[in-house]
Amino acid sequence: FPKKYILVFTGLCVLQEISADLRSVSPGEIITLHCSISTDYEISWFHQNSEQQMKLLVSAARGKLDKSFSYSFNINTDHYDISEISSSVSLVIKGVNDTDLGLYYCGGRNYSSLLQFRKPIRLTFNSGKSIYFNTTALKKVGLLL
């Protein structure tokens, strides 16, 4: 009798720590995060917060006739928008707040089921502290004219 073998291949998972591009913003600002992926079909933006939770924010697909990107998904249209530049889609965050801080990933695909990701973007608040002085009090003590 011929022997029959079952071959089982196990995939090797390699985790690699990738440095992120840093973008700083002040609370309440509008910021545009640019995607370095060019695609003819779909671009998606994901956010990963400090608790390591990843969520899909927006996804946009290119139309076959008009060739422009339009939403296929937007988790919050009041807070997120897209900006099309060439064959890529940038993420616009309106009124940045502390829940927006973290890592942002853009992924693109060309009529396949696999998303390709580029270097993530880390969004942080500006570290500079603003100090406000009472100008009336400073005038009284002669420190301000």
Question: Please, could you describe this protein's structure?
Answer:
Strand 8 (102-109) and strand 9 (116-117) form a beta hairpin. This protein has one helix spanning 135-140; strands at 21-25, 31-33, 42-48, 54-62, 69-74, 80-85, 88-93, 102-109, 116-117, 121-125. It is built from 1 helix and 10 strands, in the order E-E-E-E-E-E-E-E-E-E-H. It has 145 residues and is mostly beta strands. It has one domain: Immunoglobulins (Immunoglobulin-like, Sandwich). Residues 3-16 and 128-145 have low confidence and may be disordered. Strands 1, 3, 4, 5, 8, 9 and 10 form a 7-stranded mixed sheet that branches. The chain has a 3-stranded antiparallel sheet with strand order 2-7-6, with no helix packed on it. The radius of gyration is 23 Å and the shape is globular. The N and C termini lie far apart (104 Å).
